[in-house]
């Protein structure tokens, strides 16, 4: 079955950095898109970033452009989200998601798309 294991969250001060990892299994990694959503209490779920693993095309929400970088290591079936210059409003549970359609990655931050598979998430807390 499809499994997505997110890790790397933690508590940091504003301005700090974290690197999230998503280890995928149960599907052909190169044929899928991997993305990250986040959810803060009382806030709407927000798409953060996505990558098309076959060619490395990436997408970012406007709120994280220039601060976050998504990358993939296809040999390890792993996607990373490097988060720099963290702000308190980056706080939330970060979920790793997967979908075989390139439209999923292209839709991140633009149009609604129901991603096929979701991981359990990892908590990120940024204090001021």
Task: Describe what you observe in this structure.
There is one protein chain. The protein is globular. It is built from one helix and eleven strands. The strands form two sheets. Strands 2, 4, 5, 6, 9, 10 and 11 form a seven-stranded mixed beta sheet that branches. It has a four-stranded antiparallel beta sheet with strand order 1-3-8-7, with no helix packed on it. It has 128 residues and is mostly beta strands. Strand 4 and strand 5 form a beta hairpin.
Which H/E pattern describes the elements?
A: EEEEEEEEEHEE
The gross shape turns out to be globular
Query: Strand content of the residues, in percent?
Result: over 45%
* Separation of the first and last Cα atoms: 40 Å
Low-confidence stretches: none
Q: In percent, how helical is the residue content?
A: under 10%
Radius of gyration: 13 Å
Number of strands: 11
Roughly what is the average pLDDT, rounded to an integer? Answer: 95
Total DSSP helices: 1
Write the layout of secondary structure elements.
Elements: E1 3-7, E2 10-13, E3 18-25, E4 33-39, E5 46-52, E6 57-60, E7 68-73, E8 78-83, E9 92-99, H1 102-107, E10 117-118, E11 122-127
Parallel strand pairs: 2-11
Antiparallel strand pairs: 1-3, 3-8, 4-5, 4-9, 5-6, 7-8, 9-10, 9-11
